[in-house]
């Protein structure tokens, strides 16, 4: 079994379910003509949002206002925020804290409406059980799989800084969320996954 190098991401935050509901109150307050359909972008890694979707809570709450809800699943946070920025979804529910930073660096116009308490154990740097990498400094010169612009990307940067290393000291292997989830750490490759089910 792969084992994690113990380094957690400080300040890792996700939107609160209550915040999402509060934001939707604004939608309910709009004239029916202005808000017929509410398009919500989400990732399957979000337990709270998935539960909300499965139970049909929003559909029931908005039905009296003649507002329908459509759900749009995305593989990771960055394409989700890109869709929000170009108007393909109305609300982005649940993305890692660094994803909006990368998006805003690309001139995306975003409004934050909620955040959730830190989840310091949500991500880890994983190595093979027989890997010679036993501490963060051992990552120097190694190839590390990571999803670009995801929360795990920031975790890796923070971990390297803690070990006195620069990002240029490693060989980043940028993988899509699906590829990262399917990957298995070898003796020569480190793996930086996101939260279970989806590296956002």
From TrEMBL:
Residues 179-200 are annotated as: Disordered. Pfam families: Phosphonate-bd. Residues 186-200 have a biased composition (Polar residues). It comes from the Bacteria. SUPFAM superfamilies: Periplasmic binding protein-like II. PANTHER family: ALIPHATIC SULFONATES-BINDING PROTEIN-RELATED (PTHR30024:SF42). This is Aliphatic sulfonate ABC transporter periplasmic substrate-binding protein. It comes from Pseudomonas amygdali pv. mori.
